[in-house]
């Protein structure tokens, strides 16, 4: 069987499959609607299959069309990545890596990893983006990012994880709070205080781990605020609007009127892991994996 299919046919097909509207897809592609319809018809004829059900005011994917959309979308992203790396190699680079990370990973961990990696591979370009855990998982599965730094205990099967930092939690208190490391006896001293915590959506498993700390201390916390940024938590604590619990690595990098008490007598700890997609064929990713952990 011989196909006369070009890359543009597949890109046109994906545009229509996304909008399910020929006129809207044509506008996005900057071509005429009749021209787009002709290209899609040519693709269907070359494959000898029907990809769309066309009605008067409605366009739907056939079962075969849905399958083609899923597979072509996945493999075109791979092709785009290959072409991008080819251009970088031509320009004298070894490739690029797209990082996702939770904020606590940027305090010391990622800078240290990048400095070490940059010494060994100076011609790799880095792109960094702070993302919550769930966004990173989606980005890794779609290969929009190459490696993530997350606080998650359960991951999809396609993802590989390597724990790189296991650490204690810390209490965060205003500088003027009467309790400090010297007179701290246990978390139940704060059962009547308001707590400011990372939002559950930021990482459900991390939030659950923090809730276990309260369960073991015998009380349910009064939660006054949820946020996704450590700086917001610290600003609220600084202004006596509550106290918090954060990973130990978040002690550094902030200059505010707050203090920390390390919770080193409890069983609960938090793990920061480097995570990547097993099917990601980015050659620069293999360089990185060998340099972490």
UniProtKB/TrEMBL annotation:
Keywords: DNA-binding, Transcription, Transcription regulation. PROSITE patterns: HTH_LYSR. The keyword rRNA-binding does not apply. Residues 5-62 form the HTH lysR-type domain. Gene3D superfamilies: Periplasmic binding protein-like II, Winged helix-like DNA-binding domain superfamily/Winged helix DNA-binding domain. It holds the Pfam family LysR_substrate. Belongs to the LysR transcriptional regulatory family. This is LysR family transcriptional regulator. It comes from Flavivirga aquimarina.
